[in-house]
């Protein structure tokens, strides 16, 4: 019988007919101003896809047999057509997993969600206590998320996700996060802090220390089977043992992002012109971008390990995260800034401060969230307010935009649940 | 590893080749170069079929009286049958395929 010789990761690295893990950010509008927001979200972009355009994209995803989309933002539920689009997607056999800060998850909405198949919900929470959470996500956001989780649990929505971006302040709370998830019958999902969007401004202070990375790794080795990671931490495989999941960079191969104005990027964390593959409004639509773009074709060719190739950990970590390297000014064929062997720190020490590319779009609130006197952004070395240049940029339809909230990438490991092959 | 015709005594790890099977109604299947990807909307799990021939088998389960017939129709020879049976067993254990009780 025919047995595929190449490991599945090799097969996946050469690309698929359609993405497995497609993130779609519906809007830049958000009631919060999280300090690490990958999409620098806050204000809606006037060029965002219309309801009809979104439905066309869904039609296309159905034709491509994309199983589900990970919807994020911004806060996607602030779009007035959000539930309409969710219903449309489901009616067209495209499952929906959406990320939310909990704003609109009322008891009524929770009941409706609990009774709809093909919907999964992910609540963002970046601290197991209000103090730690609100320092990153804004005052009142812990309470808002908690209320949403209570509503989902009370409605009988089993197995919704609680999504946590790991920071220096919350690594020590891993057990507490797990306990919160267990108390709601939810599943914990943890992802890596990326230096993208506003995250670029806080990464130095917020990314876990080397000792915390080890702590995180050991925790994942002990609990990893029941915790989703969106394949975030494959760079930690350099410690020795591979973590559950794909353990490869899926950008442009099994993963991609559609942003609110229809731009298609290689991954939710690599939102920069360098990784822009096309736009769903282009002739040929999303399918053509996925199948034919030059960028994605290049990403699907065998990659060079560069300086990392001679490292004994390279087979395990694959050089780490492309986006993390890019936005910290490191070469893409060099070590990850959080390389477990310490090569990233060395590289960062010798990289020039202005080598790191800056975001090309920013939808941050000009002052504070427009939300109803609720959460207010806190400042942890946050980027200064943008001036007139930004305002001009966001009113220009040709603007190149970027980013998304870090916890929305890949709702779960693309390979979660893959039985490892044996047979045909 | 030929299965007894009597499917009443299926070993735990075995697979009832003579039973009537189908793709689980909540599973979507997408052909890929290496075979296919499957997604179960109920368990929210992905799985895959590692060869185009297995895709042919799985796709035709519902239209064939038995898994054995689906394999035969797909050109699977006796020597290959055990491997296909174990692949189908894995798909059954992850609920990607399920038995057809009524036709």
Strand content of chain A: 5-15%
Shape annotation of chain B: globular
Radius of gyration of chain A: 20 Å
Q: H/E series of chain A, N to C?
A: HEHEHEHEHHEHEHHEEEHHHHHH
**Major sheet of chain B:** 3 strands, antiparallel
Strand order of the largest sheet of chain B: 2-3-4
Q: State the helix count of chain A.
A: 15
Poorly predicted runs of chain A? 1-5, 370-424
Q: Output the number of helix runs of chain B.
A: 3
Give the topology string of chain B: H per helix, E per strand.
EEEEHHHE
Helix content of chain A: 25-40%
Structural class of chain B: alpha+beta
Termini separation of chain A comes to: 7 Å
State the share of residues found in helices of chain B, binned by percent. Answer: 25-40%
- Quick check: average pLDDT of chain B? 87
DSSP, total strands of chain A: 9
Strand percentage of chain B: 15-25%
Strand order of the largest sheet of chain A: 6-5-4-3-2-1-7-8-9
Report on the structure:
The complex is a heterodimer of chains A (424) and B (103). With 424 residues, chain A is of the alpha/beta class. Chain A is 31% helix and 11% strand. In chain A, α4 (107-114) packs across α6 (141-154). The longest helix of chain A has 14 residues, at 141-154. In chain B, α1 crosses α2. In chain B, the strands form 2 sheets. In chain B, strands 2-3-4 form a 3-stranded antiparallel sheet, covered by helices on one side. A two-stranded antiparallel ribbon of chain B has the order 1-5. Chain B has helices at 52-60, 67-73, 81-93, and strands at 21-23, 27-32, 35-40, 45-49, 97-99.
């Amino acid at each position: 019988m025919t047995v595929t010789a190449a490991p599945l990761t090799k097969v996946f690295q050469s690309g698929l007919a359609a993405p497995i893990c497609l993130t779609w950010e519906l809007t830049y509008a958000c009631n919060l101003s999280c300090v690490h927001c990958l999409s620098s979200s806050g204000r809606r972009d006037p060029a965002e896809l219309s309801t009809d355009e979104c439905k066309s994209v869904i039609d296309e995803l159905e034709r491509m047999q994309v199983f589900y989309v990970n919807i994020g933002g911004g806060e996607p539920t602030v779009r007035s057509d959000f539930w309409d689009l969710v219903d449309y997607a489901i009616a067209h056999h495209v499952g929906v997993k959406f990320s939310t800060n909990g704003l609109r998850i009322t008891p009524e909405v929770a009941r409706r969600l609990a009774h709809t198949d093909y919907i999964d919900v992910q609540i963002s929470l970046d601290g197991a206590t209000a103090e730690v959470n609100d320092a990153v996500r804004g005052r009142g956001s812990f309470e808002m998320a908690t209320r949403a989780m209570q509503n989902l649990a009370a409605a009988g929505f089993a197995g919704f996700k609680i999504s946590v971006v790991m920071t220096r302040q919350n690594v020590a709370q891993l057990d507490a996060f797990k306990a919160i998830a267990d108390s709601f019958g939810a599943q914990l999902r943890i992802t890596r802090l990326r230096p993208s969007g506003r995250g670029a401004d806080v990464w130095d202070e917020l990314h876990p220390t080397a000792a915390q990375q080890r702590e995180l790794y050991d925790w994942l080795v002990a609990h990893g089977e029941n915790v989703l990671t969106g394949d975030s931490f494959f760079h930690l495989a350099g410690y020795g043992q591979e973590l559950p999941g794909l353990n490869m960079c899926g950008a442009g191969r099994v993963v991609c992002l559609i942003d609110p104005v229809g731009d298609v990027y290689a991954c939710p964390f690599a939102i920069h012109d360098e990784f822009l593959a096309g736009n769903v409004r282009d002739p040929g639509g999303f399918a053509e971008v996925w199948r034919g773009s030059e960028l994605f074709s290049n990403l699907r060719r065998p990659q060079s390990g560069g300086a990392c190739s001679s490292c004994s950990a390279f087979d395990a970590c694959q050089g780490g995260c492309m986006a993390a390297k890019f936005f910290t000014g490191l070469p893409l064929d060099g070590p990850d800034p959080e390389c477990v062997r310490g090569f990233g720190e060395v590289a960062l020490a010798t990289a020039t401060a202005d080598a790191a590319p800056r975001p090309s779009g920013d939808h941050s609130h000009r002052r504070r969230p427009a939300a109803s006197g609720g959460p207010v952004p806190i400042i942890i070395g946050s980027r200064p307010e943008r001036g007139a240049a930004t305002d001009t940029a966001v009113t220009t339809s040709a603007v190149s935009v970027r980013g998304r909230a870090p916890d929305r990438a890949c709702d779960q490991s693309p390979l979660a649940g893959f039985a490892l092959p044996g047979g045909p | 590893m030929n299965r007894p015709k009597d499917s009443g005594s299926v070993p735990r790890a075995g697979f009832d080749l003579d039973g009537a099977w189908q793709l689980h109604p909540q599973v979507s299947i997408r052909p890929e170069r290496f075979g296919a990807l499957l997604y179960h909307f109920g368990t929210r799990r992905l799985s895959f079929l590692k060869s185009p021939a297995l895709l042919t088998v799985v796709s035709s389960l519902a239209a064939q009286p038995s898994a054995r017939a689906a394999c035969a129709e797909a050109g699977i020879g006796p020597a290959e049958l055990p491997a296909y049976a174990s692949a189908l067993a894995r798909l059954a254990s992850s609920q990607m395929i399920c038995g057809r009780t009524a036709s």
